[in-house]
Queue: 2 jobs
Job 1
Amino acid sequence: MALFNRTKREINAKIVYFGPSFAGKTTSLQFIHRKLKPDHRGAIKTMGGQKDRMLFFDFMPPELGEVNGFRVRFHLYTVQGEVTSPSTWKTVLKGADGVVFVADASGERVSAAGENLQRLREYLQSYGQEFQDVPIVLQCSKSDLPGALTPEEMAKHLDAAGMAAVRASAKTGEGVLQALSSVVKQVLKRLREQEPEEETLDGQEDAGTVAPSVSLDQTEEQEGAVPAVSADTLASPVAGAIAAPVGTVGEPDLAIAGPAEMTPDGRCCVPLAIRCGERERRYVLTVFLTAEDHHDN
Ligand SMILES: Nc1nc2c(ncn2[C@@H]2O[C@H](COP(=O)(O)OP(=O)(O)OP(=O)(O)O)[C@@H](O)[C@H]2O)c(=O)[nH]1
Ligand SMILES: [Mg+2]
């Protein structure tokens, strides 16, 4: 669910790049990052353990326009490397406003796409969301390889007839911005359908705002450029939530809401409660603990 920051008049929307391992998620995000002007995006950041690291950055190109007086900042997320714990993907998918399902269309790995799509369905259902509730785009990656299935064949194979499907190659960049653009448009459309009650509180009605065309293709390529770290860049989903409490006033209070728990893979999970005015939200702060010195005696 998008987070409204009324002070900055920004909406923070989250798009998750989900899919089987080795399908091209990281390569896609890196390509997108290179294509965006440094002024319009934050640095690529990573967080987490050695195996399943979260990779994310945010962007806000002005051509996206506004949603009823709010600018929209998109946060793109994926999980990198071998994902050992389903909770990693579930955590990243929590509150997703849109998903780009990156599937390897090159043949051998098509069955992995089916299994992962089913997993995506289950994870979303665990948050009470069905496929039809969430904008999802099927990015048919590795289409540059011989024998790759077409988007139509992939959609049929995955039984995903209603999903927008894009022929893509993360390696060449073909279709990557198109897939992003497609999900961004769907998210903006939904935000416009949901949002009015937030903005009318400030008396800034702008019901006539026209859906802007998403023109990511017009951004400049900045190969090798040092990314500008936007002061607005949110460091994590939790930091984002703290920075952007929904429709609240005053400073948020943060409290530890229960005992910390250790997981078998070395994570320490600390329940937190963040209160702002009348509203309270619960989060789990997950940290990886690494012993520097280990003595049995
Ligand atoms: N030919 C071709 N190779 C690709 C494409 N996308 C990714 N690759 C290659 O496939 C390998 C895996 O790509 P990644 O982007 O790391 O895949 P990923 O989905 O992030 O993988 P995990 O992080 O392990 O889940 C790399 O060697 C990429 O260069 C593509 O569209 N075409
Ligand atoms: Mg990756």
Job 2
Amino acid sequence: DTHSQNHIRITSSEILLPRKETAAQIDHLRRLLNERAREYLLPRLEKHAAETGLTPAATDLSNAKTFWGVCRPHTGIRLNWRLIGAPEYVADYVCIHELCHLRHPDHSPHFWHLVNTLTPHTDNAKSWLKAHGRELFVLG
Ligand SMILES: [Zn+2]
């Protein structure tokens, strides 16, 4: 393990924080990941929007502590930036889930039928978020 005490290291599967991380280092890392999340998540959402024909009024990131995505008719879809740390199929599932709310604002059987028509990842993604979602809050 090359983890040093003075550096923040990000690999494809984990974020290792310095043993004595400072608030400034955490802020810096959070800002960095926010920028990456914008580049990674929003084009992904827009690709799914184009493919499904479900078009949100706008797209943006959110810093919410309680949801992965939100969809409202007038403000569009916002995705939690922390999904930058989730596997791609999980990010894809959240995109599809929120896009389907444009047609069904509830979690009715019609909603889930549409979700499952558009992605095969529902069960695996929900399991992943249940098992690992809290880990994405390591930076607060
Ligand atoms: Zn929902």
